[in-house]
């Protein structure tokens, strides 16, 4: 059984590629965390006529953050179906949804949910970089 698990952990997405995603996600997270320091910067209040019309202070800083997010989104969107599923499964293992011994199950579930919104899904994870790191470590990649 152990040999089978090790074979299942062979990634089509290279660990170095995942580490690049981790660096981009950390850069994105660092920018967001600075904005949330006082907890008030991004509170959204909608009146009856507003439709997510939300503006930030410091638009010059935000444009560089958006560039990082856009870069990460493009990198994720450029992945093939197997690579994208592996990235999602790594995040799930890192988050604790699956144990490393359940890699095959995590990967199967990630393939089932595969769609064009993988980047949006992953970028919506608040601790994406940490979870990817922990996922790589858990499977020994």
Automatic annotation (TrEMBL):
InterPro entries: DUF3775. This is DUF3775 domain-containing protein.
């Amino acid at each position: 059984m152990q040999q089978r698990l090790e074979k299942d952990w062979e990634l089509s997405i290279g660990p170095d590629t995942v580490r690049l995603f981790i660096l981009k996600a950390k850069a994105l997270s660092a920018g967001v965390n600075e904005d949330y320091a006082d907890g008030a910067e991004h509170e959204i209040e909608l009146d009856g006529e507003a439709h997510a019309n939300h503006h930030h202070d410091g638009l010059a800083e935000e444009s560089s953050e958006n560039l990082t997010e856009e870069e990460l989104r493009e990198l994720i969107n450029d992945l093939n179906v197997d690579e994208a599923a592996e990235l999602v499964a790594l995040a799930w293992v890192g988050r604790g949804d699956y144990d490393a011994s359940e890699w095959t199950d995590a990967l199967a579930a990630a393939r089932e949910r595969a769609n064009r919104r993988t980047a949006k899904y992953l970028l919506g994870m608040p601790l994406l970089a940490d979870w990817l790191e922990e996922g790589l470590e858990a499977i020994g990649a």
